[in-house]
Amino acid sequence: MKKISIYLILFWGVVQVSAQKDSIYIEAKLSPDRKSLEVNQEIVYYNHSDKDLHTVKLLNWVSAYNKRGTSLVYRKLEDRNNDLHFAKNDELGKLVELNIKNSENKPIPVNIISDENLFLPLNEALKPGESITLQLQYKMLLPDKKFTGYGTSSQITALKYFFIVPDHFDPDNISQNNYHDIEEPVSFNTFWTVNFDIPVNNFIEGNLPQVQMNSFKGYLDSDPEFLISQTAYPSIITNVEGSSTVIKFGYNLKPEEKQNLEFYLPLHLKFLKEKIGFLPESIFISEKFKAKEDFFGNNDITFWKFRFQLFNDAEKTDLDYFGIITKKILDENIIADKQKDHWFKNGLKSYIEIQYLNKFYKDTKLLGTLPEAKLFGLKPLKLFHASKVKLLDRYGLAYQYIMLQNLDQKIDENFAVLSNFNDMAISSFETGSLFNYSADKIGGSTFDDLIKTYISQNSGKKINPEDFLKELSKKDKSTNYLTDFFKQKNRVNFKLKRIQKESDSLHIKIARNTDAPIPVKLETETREGEKKEYWVETEENERIKDFPLPASDNIYKITLNNGYIFPESNYRDNFLYAKGIFSNTKKIKLKLIKDIPNPEYNEIYISPRVRFNNTYDKFLLGVNLKNQSFFDQKFLYSFTPTYSTGTGKLTGSGAASYSFLPAESIFRSLTFGASGSYFHYDYGLAYRKGSLFSNFNFRKNPRSTVSRSVGFSYNYFERDLSPLMIANDDYKKYNLWSVGYGYSDNQMIHEKSFSLSAQGMEDFNKITAEGFYRWEFAPKQKLSLRLFAGYFLRNDTRNNLFDYGISRVSNYTFSYNLLGESASSGLLSQQFILADGGFKSFIPGTVNQWITSANVDSSVWKIFHVYADAGIYKNKDMPAKFIWDTGVKVRIIPDFLEVYFPIQSSLGFEPSFKDYAKRIRYTLVLNLGSIINAARRGWY
To answer: What is the pLDDT of residues 608-630, one digit of tens each?
Structure first.
């Protein structure tokens, strides 16, 4: 009788809980070919809002894979992935049948089953707290797994976000919510019962409790996930303080990896329990989740046939799986709207990760053991500051890298518009650093207790992370700044102004550029290496802080926020020396090769330079002096004196610029600078060029491929002239003013750009417009169109130096990389620059009044393209003339090395010409910056 009473009490408790939460019952049958899924489903949906509902929204996210133009396809294109855009019909996913009935067993009409959001009309209003039962029957075709990691393949079917479910983050059922493949949760507080009918000799695993073969049942505060495969994947059972947790894997483990995991997983879970206060009974890790959440930066470096290991296999397993396990537990036990509150779970993950590294990898270097690698008996990487940077510094360095380009975003920015890099550097790393900074200030145990309490009190509830920040500020008012800090891009900077000795004290002047009362951590160090730490409290609106220390402490060096522990805009002014010839100043360090900057020093990079300039200077031998490291800086200089092997004379170039990077402005950067150069443009003839310039780059969404800028420049030119040029009264000196606007959108599929510029001097003024469009109509098959128009508003020039070119450009600004600047015959003269008219055939003449042209290029097969150019131009006192050409282009290295073979043109059938070999053109672009920019698209 006693047992029966206990069962009744337990049953009644379950009924009570179930009555307050949605429930979903599913029977799903996977076809033998794994392509289609038939589903019978019942949804008991409660009105969780505070108003009457007249419609219920169901998410039909398989339709995101149905066609081009969906939010998912567009996001994949932003990430430089066009697989889904060019998918074959049998690779797409879609809903093919759908029937829905209400509680009275009456059909509910659905107009368009291809929509990602299905809004179902209700006959009667659903009151707050009331429920409705929906019966669904549907059949879907599953997409190929290669697009998102979810879907089907010949051996594996991964199911997540495919079942039709309510959107619990939209209780009012009014907002469109499309699938973006960002692991966005939509279901919580739901009791699931899922029964599968799967092909024979298949196994199934998931994140729901399995009650019997192919059947799952239980509560989830996250979305259900299942893996159906022909292979039974491994699992590991751990025991931590008497509680067991089973970790299930959706992929195979190598024997060594499994052995390492059996050692590390108990340590991971024990550490996590100390931080968050609980452990789940089971954890399911899919291959997709593992790839997304593993440790960034611990992979081996492979180059050609060489492989360099940063960390051993055990360390890689430890680092990878600690982050994976941490994020998985947080994801499935904290209910947060990923679009708005992504930073909370991401930040907690990074905070716990920092704590773990601080305990077990405190002195480990960012490059691991790589600096110990020998080359000819030497350790060359030891020369780099990067070899001394700690693994813990990666959180602050990632923020510095993106912030110095002004491409960072607010911590609480909507997740859908975060760039991939900012997902890591801002949402995760910056937030985690701030949590760790706060924990360091108030005490680690106090901060951890706050996390445990907050997670426990919000179990089963959708959180509002601002409540956590309020509780944190109650513990220590010095953390009050965080709420506003998360809502804006920040450029907080602490600066050590000076150290002044007065009597028996050292007075340290600390300046800051913010009115927010943010504490700062000060560290002192003696010559013997003894360190002490102090927290310096600041008051609101206090810009200068005087902090006294005993002079008897024998302080040699003072540092603020050492180790990139706080996301500052500039660490270079956080170091000062109290003694020696460098007291109150920064030391200077000379370096040979570009490096991660060491903020303690003013670094000057001195590196040898050897490059081919043109046929006149030939190879330039010299040295480059600059201050640019791997990270951008506001003030940049670069000077390169060189020896010209072609002329036996000294040549060179130099430039200096300063950039303003306003955090919140219509401009991303405002750059002002000056440059100069001295090289040769013909045999025995040199040119000197001096420039003043400014560039205004407009603010851009870091996920967007759109860039806009306005530029102004003044250029002074002085050329040596040959006797013939002097006799022809050629230009020896001239000044050019120019202003231009540029727009570019380097997205996949539809790439486009536009520029408009005006240029002038005492003898002419002209205006030029250029538009470009490139369409990828099939994988790696593109069609491009360029339109050009140029018009002289005034032209009183003495010769054709400043004319528009038809098939060859006049490089009077010395801005094109021409190998033979003045070559009129031979191989060097056949170099092609896509500018002005852009004709590939050698059509003689230049244009001194106006010209319009169109250049078309299309893929045919592999590296072979066809091209066609057409245009009309007019010279003074001459009638307008129509010209055209066609030919074949071979793209040996696309956009960098290409060869043009003319076929038919206004000149005739060119292959029949005796000098046809001299009519073949080529492009050669040797610009490392362009290669780097092309490679990093999709990150920011």
So the answer is: 999 888 889 999 999 999 999 99
